[in-house]
Design brief:
By secondary structure, the protein is an alpha/beta fold. About 25% of the residues lie in helices and about 35% in strands. It has 5 helices and 13 strands.
Length: about 210
Amino acid sequence: MYKVFFNERQIRICLKEKIAKNKPYVSFNALTTSNDIKKWFDSFRNDELMEISLTHPDPDLFFKIFRSAFREIPAAGGLVISGKMVLFIFRNGKWDLPKGKIDPGEKPEQAAIREVSEECGISGHEAVRQLLSTYHIYGSPSVDSKETWIFKETFWYEMSYSGPLTGTPQKGEGISGVRWIPDYRINEVFANTYENLKLLLTSEFDEIRY
């Protein structure tokens, strides 16, 4: 199953038999094209459903078709851990993890390390393993391409860090604070964060409860 977020609305891509009873879904078939996805998305973004499943006999293939219907911009970020402490930022009024767009010619891991440095003002952190990617769709902020919808895959990395538990927020990116939070208090982040980050954090911290 794939989960793609549009704002806080969830789009699930899966086999039909994986749908929970009485949950809304739309079925696609082997002849589905990216244009079909564009037409469906135009309809979806104007309704009020908070979650929907898209079914297909081959979800992996369908996911490739689905993302090709949008302009893709890859990003990368880090889940930085120092002992029992986890690094978070406060961006635009919500808890977030440091992340940003991958520059041309840059590898995802390099971009993730760079973005953590730029957004949090720390150095010496190292990527130790790749985590699951998250996916979301948003409208282009450019006035010239405001009808362009962006599909962003964010490559996440767990990072180790042994330096001072401090940080300097990159205020030009809407970040108002940098904070190290004990892993046993991760639930506090859930009260004010994004759905795609909840997905990532839940996969990494067993003690999280909705």
